Amino acid sequence: MQNNAALEPVTLGARQIGLDQVVSIARQGVPVKLSEDPAWTKKIHAGAAFLQERLQSEAPLYGVNTGYGASCGVKIPPHLVPELPLHLIRYHGCGLGRPLTEQACAAVIVARLTSLSMGYSGVRMEILERLVDLLNRGIFPIIPEEGSVGASGDLTPLSYVAAALLGERTVTYKGQVVKASDALAKEGLEPVTLLPKEGLALMNGTSVMTGLACLAFDRAQKLLRLSAHISALAVEAFLGNRDHYHPDLFAKKPFRGQAQVADWIYQDLSAEHILDLEHPVQDRYSLRCAPHVLGVLADALPWMKEHIEIELNSANDNPLIDGMARKIYHGGHFYGGHIAFVMDSMKTAVANVADLLDRQVALLTDPKSNNGLPGNLSGAVGERAVINHGFKAMQISISAWTAEALKGTMPASVFSRSTENHNQDKVSMGTIAARDAVRVIELTEQVAAGSLLAMNQALSMRLRDGAIQRDELRPSLVRLHDEVNAVFPLLEEDRPMQVDLENILHHIRHNHLGCDS
User: Fold this and answer.
1) What is the pTM (predicted TM-score) of this model?
2) What separation in angstroms does the CA of 7 have from each of 209, 401, 511?
3) Is the distance from CB of 450 to CB of 394 less than 8 angstroms?
4) Cα–Cα distance, 381 to 372 (Å, whole number)
5) Are the C-beta atoms of 463 and 237 separated by less than 8 Å?
6) Which end of the chain is less packed: N or C, by CB atoms within 10 Å?
7) From CA 442, how far away is CA 14, in angstroms rounded?
8) How many CA atoms lie within 13 A of 439 on its CB side?
9) Is 62 known to be catalytic?
10) What are the structural domains, with CATH classification, of the chain?
11) CB contact at 8 A, 441 and 219
């Protein structure tokens, strides 16, 4: 991911930021800068100064001159206090699993920077500036995704961010994996020397789960809109009943998101097809109830966004240092329960989207239920029809991706573990929930890609046999149909479709194919 210096930077510090801004920084490389508001600058300096003043008094202050976690009763001799942050960062370097993507890493850094910028963590401006440097100069710590139980926050994965500031461990820089010290040197940056509490402040929070949640939300929102388009394609291909989505019908069960989805589908559809005795007046549930299935996600997304943005703009550290009021608070704001619940809920709602699309594809590939379309949506004609199989295997793959997505909906938040000598005896599991949600979304995007190809194939055959006239279709579906055809024209002869799926997935994940309409 490259920084795009030509874009207007996002200012962090004095004002709260939105989820969409995190996404723009992570996905588009929008640069960031720190606020120049004097009141905010004063707040940051006051916190760091007050912390150092308290440290000079030698009064016990958790994680500053005491041990961590269950060792909080251990007093650290003054001459060893400066080394304490280094030990915290180093002994937490025990993550495993696939590394987070650069986009995910950027979202994590933004989330941590936003929390520290609240001014209640006692860190110096230099720490905030160096986090900005990581983002703007494209230095991304390699963060293994496994190893956090979500309290005390994301200690182990965030230790990789802290280590990068020290010039330790590895990072990605200009497309290469290099030592953090080398990347800093090439950018003319010196490794930072952490003061007491700054190591803990960098690590003790919900920033990994929150960064992942921001990106997951954005993908789920786009999936919702695309799935409404795909459902409309399915209705057209099935020669279904547009009246199932009529606004007057949905006024009688007034869930706002559900009604919005129904209206999206209704506006995509042409006038009602002529129904006959061979086509029942009511379509199958996977068509007729599409707004009800997609509507659950549509109605959940607003409160999910609110919860994510509250967590994003929170001081999720411990202890909190209020330099202006000259107070120190010990608590548990590192606990990621709200993000865990959002992610557990999101993955369930999104997996139901996968299940809906899977059922629609099964309906339209089966000659017993697809209202006269060829079996498996094969586009072959004449004597070659018998050796071509169309979407037979695609339907199986879609079913497999759906099954895996559904399996991934087991809530993580209820599997709390007692860790760290029973100090962390109730933990959020928020980061595991977030990773699960990302995986379910990834699988559902694959289902959407296969479904989009299948529905487009079905519509192409309806157009070919004259059951539907192109000039009768709504412009939104014509546009989507043409965009898909440019990548995947009518399938007549069997061929591998992996590359087609990958191309469609690329378009889905980069805001194309009707996702923004």
Assistant:
1) 0.95
2) 27, 37, 19
3) yes
4) 15
5) no
6) C
7) 35
8) 19
9) yes
10) 10-205 (1.10.275.10), 213-317+335-509 (1.20.200.10)
11) yes
